Amino acid sequence: MFFVFPYRLFAASNAQVEATVKISVCGNNVKESGEQCDGDDLGGQYCQSLGYTGGSLSCNPDCTFDISNCTYCNDGICNGNETCSNCPADCGQCSSGGGGGGGGGSVPPVTSVASVVFSGRAYPKSTVTLLKDAQVAATTIADSDAKFKINLTGLSGGNYIFSIYSEDNKGIRSSLLTFPISVTSGATTNVSSIFIAPTIDVDKSEVRRGDNVAIFGQSVPNSKVTIEVDSDKPIFSQTNSDNNGVYLYNLDTSPLTMEKHYTKSKAAKNGEISSFSKAVGFLVGTRNISKSAKSKCGRADLNCDGQVNLIDFSIAGYWYRRPISKEFAAIESERLNGDGEINLVDFSIMAYYWTG
Fold it and tell me: Which end of the chain is more exposed for a tag (fewer CB within 10 A), N or C?
């Protein structure tokens, strides 16, 4: 089955982009995308359709084919449930025999715990972090092609809010992808085709109108990166990431008005497309000012006083279920969920980083 999760592009607009991930449940006796089989549902396959001459096809607990009881007598070798020492060419002469008494393997016990497997693309050799109900549940390292896989086991059946993010080679964190998922006891839920949005940053906090501002970040290697800059008429540009997933675009600010603007990016490769990144801002003005390397404000610290307490909760509470301003959108993008609105996920993040 497929789920589509919408993400708000800019806090000051109602525009949305849809990112699609595939969710399948191994253990519900229904073959779904990414599974060879599920329980008794073999997807219409049988031993002969897989190239064997006979036997009985079944399904493993991990939703892959169990071919241990498929036979192929014509090779002169005993396979699977063939019991003769030298199988003749005529399969009908190969007795299934009475020895052994094993009877085709044991049935795995029913378990009450559940598992969720997350897989997709991030950035090459980047750390991918999985949150469960706003708490860090697992981390992994993406491979050189930016692919990752996290297997979370030992869960009880129920409803969870899972979130996932990555961090690029400059320490810039991606926007947070959030998935509310209902987990079934005794089953494995597969969340695949995750495409984490690119990271993004700019080299100037203020740029003189007519000069260039560098927009850069990291994504999947050799992907097409689309950059959007908000204006009276939004400006769209494209560039490609290199073999390490790094991209760079020098934006000519001549068409932009002298005010604060926001930019974001998304990536596409092999027909898959990410959601948009968080938005970062820059001022088009009369001088060039380099952007400081990193904010001094910590995660969830909305007023930048080095603590996460009731003041921060009050600030977030003011914007709860309201359209947030462009100025606060930059803070929300950097220190909270990054989805352009204040909701329960943001309060969960603040609770996790609470200092009192």
Answer: C
